[in-house]
Design brief:
Shape: rod-shaped
Mean pLDDT: 90
Low-confidence stretches: 1-25, 450-457
Structural class: alpha+beta
CATH architecture of the domain at 6-21 and 97-290: Alpha Horseshoe
Strand content: 5-15%
Radius of gyration: 38 Å
Helix content: 40-55%
Oligomer: single chain
Amino acid sequence: MDFCFRRAGRIILAASALVLIPSFVTVPGAKAENQAAAGQKNWKDRDEYDAYQKAAQATDPKARLEALKAWEDKYPTSDFIDMRNQYYLDTYSKLAPTDPGMRQALLTKAQDALKTDPKNANTLYLISLWGPIVGGSNPSPDLVSQVESAGHAFIAGADDAFAAANKPANLPDADWQKAKIARIGIAHNALAWAAASKKDYPTAESEYKESLTINPDQGTTSALYAKMLYDEKKFGDSLFEYARTAQYTGPGPSQPAASRQQAMDFFNKLYKNYHGGDDGKDQVLAQAKTSALPPSGFNITSAADAAQKDADAVNARIKSDPAFGLWYSVKASLTGDSGATYFGGNVKDVELPGGAAFGGTTVKYFSGTILSLDPADKPTKITLGIEDPTKADATLIFTTAIPASALTKIKVGEKINFTGVVDAFTKDPYMLTFKDADVEGVQLAPPPPRKTTKKHH
């Protein structure tokens, strides 16, 4: 089963990328100053220190970038190359959201930074964040490998990187933990992207689930996950994530209002096409509003699965109940394209079942549940449900009213067995009408008068 809603999925993916970026980057300028003062590292000369100061004090990112390049050009082997790389990454991070040309430069500098500081959490995080944005849907194998390595390394070192001793003094503990959780979530998102790029969808699905488990406050991740599930034709699970995308507004990164509305429109269309109706939709929306992942046992039955389940139930019933099998066979013929012709040539004025054979069995009676008697006190019409005991599909018409003595057995809710001559039918809604039927075990017409004989003396 497939649906032509690709456009909505692409828009969600494009709109989600940049709003994933949290503003949390630290540059160890003070630490470098202390190292220099302690004699652990040295400036080449006063000019290098002045070059550093010019870059550190620049408030405009473009001006800082120029200052950093000037420092690097003159002092490529500085003792403070690690610090300078972090200044570069901080500066590129500020420029990249609005200048796509800075994104590849950021990744290139990050890769350089790992050569001298391979476990730097900030560098690994930025690769995890920006790599999927730069790579998109058709990344190079080298970039996929770069992102995959960074994501795994960041997750492995997250506890050490976010140890209490590393927390900025003015940052509350709760915010420090939130920053850790947000970045671990993004690293898992990066691993999901890398796996999907290699068409390893089970791993991608697992990584998205892990990300949303660790940090449920990611409406943008739900959007990416929804699209991947949809592309895999896992429509039931993708519906939950589209519902989440459409409704999530924060406190974490969420889709813009227009994209959320698109997601809701897409959800509504897909749900109806997939499920075959809107029943149960409100429950899915309510669950997705409070949870990033579906609850255990979550399932949206497809229309195809529901139809197959119904067909299996009908086939099982036909196999165990020849009377129903005959009834269903007649109905199938009457509701087909040649129903009127079939009725006139095979059913009209014929007693059914009346001992007809079905599946090697002689069928004497149909069975149905009485739904109504009309009129109630002296009925001349009985309406029955045969296929479904709650839906009328057979009518028995009598020339004379059913006697009161028979109404103890013929009453609404009771099940009766009958045979009768077919008089009429309607295709939609389906109804087969019989005249003057016989009901098993019930005397409907008064017995004929007894003949009396004269006594002879």
